[in-house]
Design a protein that fits this description.
- This protein is an alpha+beta fold.
- Among the domains are: 51 residues, no CATH class; 86 residues, Alpha-Beta Plaits.
- 26% of the residues lie in helices and 15% in strands.
- The strands form 2 sheets. It has a 3-stranded antiparallel β-sheet. Strands 3-5-4 form a 3-stranded antiparallel β-sheet, with no helix packed on it.
- Strand 4 and strand 5 form a beta hairpin.
- Bound molecules: iron/sulfur cluster (2 copies).
- The site of one iron/sulfur cluster (SF4) has 12 residues, from helix 4.
């Protein structure tokens, strides 16, 4: 695994496999994780999350002087932020857990969200092959590793395309939209763990 987060995730998957194998179930069947999306709307221009955007660059964590750290392996190198800098660093958070959710049937294609988006990441256009579509967006989507968010066909035959790679999760599109077609929703993923939740219901009933 590339880091400790992946190591823990792989550990969960291994535990699910062992549990299902010992329960006589097909280990190729992987129970879906739990997913919730909860609207963060509190009013027309208010959200339950802090949607203000800070343009600050990343703050550098101060280090202890090398004459101390090189003299003793027990001396910690990183001293950590003082409270004021720590607060400023937290304000750089892009709220990646708060998703922009688009409801096609509510959209009247007024383009108000396109106008207000500070990152030009929303486009209404004709659909097409992904590689070609990427070049036609308001701001070309250059990071091919990041999927595009593409809606079903709208009334005019166009689609809404959003480049997730540059979205700031600021919520301005959702504040501006006159019909509520955009909403900011907090995403929570509940990983399936070993135990009753990862077993087939029928087998569970038969075992009871
Ligand atoms: S949340 Fe902000 S940056 Fe993202 S699409 Fe909406 S207006 Fe643009
Ligand atoms: S502001 Fe709302 S209704 Fe207007 S184009 Fe955007 S999503 Fe559609």
């Amino acid at each position: 695994p590339k880091n400790i987060i992946w190591a823990v995730a792989h550990g969960h998957q291994a535990a699910v496999t062992i549990d299902r194998l010992l329960s006589g179930e097909d280990v190729r069947e992987r129970p879906a994780p739990g997913v919730t999306l909860v609207s963060q709307k509190m009013g027309i221009h208010e959200w339950t999350y802090d949607n203000d955007i800070s343009n600050d660059a990343r703050y550098k964590v101060p280090w202890a002087p090398p004459e101390q750290t090189l003299n003793s392996i027990a001396t910690e190198v990183e001293l950590g932020f003082d409270p004021a800098t720590a607060w400023k660093e937290t304000q750089r958070c892009l709220n990646c857990d708060v998703q922009t959710v688009f409801e096609r049937d509510k959209c009247i294609e007024c383009d108000a969200c396109v106008d207000i988006c500070p990152m030009d990441c929303i486009t209404f256009t004709g659909n097409g092959e992904e590689a070609e579509l990427r070049t036609r967006l308001t701001a070309p989507a250059l990071n091919g590793a990041q999927d595009l968010y593409v809606s079903d066909l709208l009334r005019t035959g166009r689609v809404m395309v959003k480049d997730e790679d540059v979205c700031l999760h600021c919520g301005l599109c959702a504040e501006r939209c006159p019909t509520g077609a955009w909403d900011m929703r907090k995403f929570l993923l509940e990983v399936t763990q070993a135990g009753p939740a990862c077993r087939d219901r029928t087998v569970r009933r038969a075992a009871a």
